[in-house]
Every structure is written in C-alpha cells, then in structure tokens.
Amino acid sequence: MSDPHTHGDHVRHHEHHRGGAAAHGEHAGHGGHGGHGEHAGHDPEMFRRKFWLSLILTIPLTATSSMVMDWFGYTLDFPGIELVGPVLGTAVFFYGGWPFLTGGVHEVRSRAPGMMLLIATAITVAYIASLVSSLGLFDLEFWWELGALVTIMLLGHWQEMKAIGQAQGALAALAELLPDEAERIRDDGSTEAVPVTDLAVGDTVLVRSGSRVPADGEVTQGEAEMDESMITGESRPVVRGPGERVVAGTVATDSAIRVRVDAVGDDTALAGIQRLVSQAQSSKGRGQVLADRFAALLFYIAMGAGAITFVVWSLIGDVTSGVVRTVTVLVIACPHALGLAIPLVVAITTAVSAKSGVLVKDRLAIERMRTVDAVLFDKTGTLTRGEHTVAGLAGADGVDAEEVLRLAAAVESDSEHPLARAIVAHRGRLHGEAPRASDFRSRTGKGVEATVEGRRYAVGGPALLRELGLASPSELDESIDAWSSRGATVLHLIAIGEEVRVLGAIALEDEVRPEAKRAIEDLRAQGVEKIAMITGDARAVAEAVAADLGFIEGRDEVFAEVLPADKDQAVADLQARGLRVAMVGDGVNDAPALARADVGIAIGAGTDVAIESAGVVLASSDPRGVGGVRRLSKAGYRKMIENLGWAAGYNIVAIPLAAGVLAWAGFTLSPAVGAVLMSASTIVVALNAQLLRRVELTPES
What we know:
Helix content is 49%, strand content 17%. The chain is of the alpha+beta class.
C-alpha cells in the first residue's frame, strides 16, 4: 500500500460538458401527454411565464364579468368596461392558450386525441361564443371562464413539467469524468499539455498521482493503485503496472504512470457506457398518462354529446337553445379538475418527498414504483458505505490484537490511502490518537513502512509478504481464512529489524450500512417479490454482504463480478422474466442500469451521472427511502384515481344536464351553474390531493 500524496501536488482539472451537447438536444420534453412535447417551447419556464401573465389578465376579466358581479352582489361600471372581456380575453386565448391550440392541432394530425385537444376545443368554443355574444348575437359570455380555464391549465402543466426528469443530462455528467487536458510525452521525453481531443492512438501520456486517465491504454512505465470504482464497481483500488490496461476516467491514487493510448473518443470504455445510457433512455417507453386516457375518452363523449344536443334541439325546433346547449356542453366538458387531477398530485408528491430527502425527477417513475416487484440494489455505496472499516484483528507471536491496531495505525498515520485512513480512524474511535511515526516510506502497490517508538514496522498485503520472503504465521490461519471467505482485504503488521517477522493481521471490509437490512425488511413487508444485489466485487464479498442483509436463498438473488454492460443486461434479464424492476445505485457504472430499469433510484451521495440517469434521487444515502418511495407511489396513484374519478363523475352528471335532458322537467344547467360546479370540482380535487401530506415515507423503527 502506498501513499497517494508522495508525488507532490495533484493535477486537478475542471471538466466541461464535452460530448454532452447532443445530450440536451432541442426537444423540451413535454412528457406529460403522450408525446405532445414535440412542440417546441414546451418547457417549465415557458409555462411559468404564460401562467403568471394569464393570471394577471384573468383577474380583471373575472372582476368585470356580469355573471361574477351578480353572484357576489357588487357593481362595476366605467367607460370601456364592455371592452375588457374581448380585449383581455383575446390576449389570454392567443398568448396563454397557444400551447394547447398547437398541441390540439398536433393531436388531430397524429390521430391521438387527448388532453391538449380537449382543452383546445373548450377554450376555442368559449372564445368564439364569447366573441359572438360581445357582438350581441348570443348571450353566452364566457370571457372570465376562458381566462380561468387557460390559467389553471397552464398552472397544471407548469407543475407537471417541473416534475419530469431531464434524463439526457446523464451523458454530460459522464463526459465530466474526463480531464480537459492530458500530458503527452514528446520524443525527447519532455511533456506537453494538450487537449484530450487531440490525443491519438499510439501517443504516450503521463498520468500523475491523483489524476484521471485521459484515454484507454496500456501502462508502459510505473505502477500505481488505480481507483476503478466509477467504471467497474470494484470498491478496492487495483494495482496496475507495465503491460496492464487502464481505462479513461479512472484515477491513479498513489503514483505516476505512463500510458500508451490505444483507444480514444467513441472507442473508450467510458464512451461505451455513454452509449448504453443513451440506448436505455431511448428504449424506455414514456406511455400515456391516465389523464390523457380520460381526456381522449372525454373528447369523444363531448363531441358526441354536443352533436346530439344540437341535432335534438334543432329537430325540436329550437335552434337557438340548441346552440346555447351545445356550447355549454363543449365548454364544461373540460373541467378544471381533470387538468389538475394529475399535476396537483405530482406537485404535492414532489413537495412531500423532498421534505423527506426524496427528490422526484420523473413523475412517471414515481407512478411506476407502486407496480415494482423486484428491487435491484448496487452493493458499493448503496447497501454498503463504499468505505472500508476494520472488521477483524488478530495478533501473532505473543502480540495482542490491540497492540497490532496501535502499531498499524501509527505506521499508516501519514498515508492518505483509503485502507490506511480506515485503520487510523478505527484506532481513533476506540482509543484516541495513535503514537507518532517517523521516516515514513511508501512501497508502491505493496504497502508502507515507518519508525514507531524507535523500531521499524511495515503494513501491507500479500505482495509485501512475498517481497520480504515471509509467510503468514499458522496461528493467524484460522482468522485469515474466515476473513478471506468473506472477501475481506487482509493486511499484515510486520516488524523490520535484525529479525523480520509478522506480528499480526488486520481485516478490512466495505461496511454494510446499518439501515440497509431495515430497508430490505420494509420492502418485503410491502410485498416486493424479489430483492437482488449487483456488484463488481468478488462473489465471496457479495455473498457475505447478502448473508449480513438476510437475503433469502432461492428467492433473492446476487449478481457478482459484474461489468457495466452486464449491470444493464441484468436489469433487462429480470425484466424478461416478467418482473418490474427498480434499480438503486450510486456509481457511473450504475447509470445504464438506472436508465434501463422501470424505476431508477439514485443514492444522492453518489455521482452526478447516476443522479441524472435516475427518475428518483434519495438525497441522503439511506436505502430505507426506497420503501418510502413505494409507499408514496401507491398513495399518489390512489389520489390520482380518486381525482380522476371525481372529474369523470362531474362530467357524467354535468354533460347530460348541460345538454338539456331534464329540460322537459323544467331543469337546465345554465353556463353559470356549470361554472360553479367546475369550481367546486377543482376545490374537491385540491383538498383531496392535500391528504397526501399525511403519508409517512420512512418505515417505523
């Protein structure tokens, strides 16, 4: 084991989003209505601007409406009051209603009627009827209702768009793993800083301690422990020397190496992961939301009811009543409640989850979570802390375990290696600071040594034992065998002097999160069929962690020694068995799997690319949040169904009444009463959605 700081200052880079331009694209993504987001400009900021301006215009529209003045018993009269409706109503119709009008046209062209066409029909009929009434031809003044309908629909769409994830950001986050520049070695042995994009196959680059490898290649000189966790998922640094391959994006933790480039640009392993993420995201079906299905059905019902209404009243001989009844049917067929049924639940779900550290990026992901019957956890950094901790101590030759820890911590105190920090931290928690050491020296890829209390000691793994010609004492065999069977890293404390001997051994493991077992129990209690774990670590490590977490043999599943492409494939395989899969991870190598899964859940302490690839992000690193997401999903879906049921129930009653089916009994639904019912429907939906705030996201202890 060696110290990553022995070569002076690290080379640090600010990475830009190279290669990510295509990731963002031009499409703004209105995923809320079955693909209607193909219209340019359908983004949260556009809906926000249109909502606020439409609201400002709707206030005077409503205040000057004779219908509203009659309701509340007040009177407004000033020169030009009769122009307020036509002028402001026209502005709201064309400015605020434009996204719905263009969306409606798109739905007509694609022969897929939905919410946009329903809204477009309602506001167009309201606008034409109000304009004709302003000319004195009819008494159907809908200006205030037009303004309210457009404004509330804009609010609903704005909230909806805010809840939709920006999945393509994952590709830009992947690009950030590469440095901006590389140190290319000239023929005379000197180095020159060049942009990474200028590297070619055959170039040799210098990768300093603490720096990222700029391109895939083969080590030609030097030896270093490489942190490859962002690519392979393997939690332990891996020693790479001459003749061995290194991958772009990985980090040399302790020493400088020279690398001959053999792959650049799209041919690198990192670019391969980018392609996997892109393919998985594009293959994930967005589907139509429930509100759109209701809207499509309601559109046909409204059109049919309107046509029947006009024909029947015309046959009766009352064409004027036929026009009034038909207009009323078409306007009130698009209740505010239907437009808000889904967005309100989404907005409140997002707010409730955020307070509990759960960030919902993709509302379709939170909807799908209730149907998940398999949860696939990445091991490192998700079920475990991603950091090693001392798991066992054993002394030899009369040295007790505490003395082994004391001396090892002293030797390691000047090292910045992750395993060294784990030993020093463990000693500090138990007994305070370790003795001071001097003459610290690193043995690259093998270990470290230092002088403690006048004697020379070394700490290292099997490579150090081989270098010194030592074998582990037989009295340590039982402990080491037990540790090795769990996949633990075993280091030895060695006394160096006239006699070189092993004084003891230390086992280090990636620490299992104490809350991970509770998270799994909570998911089982909710009826999740299968819990699975996937990792780049060795099978022995994975099986040991699974045993600690209480995996059930024959029911749960462990995927070990898995490469990035295989993680993506593991999700696809589970899905091929008919399972709906939620993937929980935190690393770059998890990104394709997160994107492929029915629901991708990123641990917030993880990498940017994992977070960008996921639909749901746990801001903390507590895996118990996964069960909370499922509970919230089920509660949110229930509220959506209730709200849609209310909206549908409103129409079942309101449309026939507006059409005049009870006119023979002297009862008709006037536009004013229809507007009141619309408002009442909206209030009911809003109050029902507020009940979501009672959902408890964290399982009871």
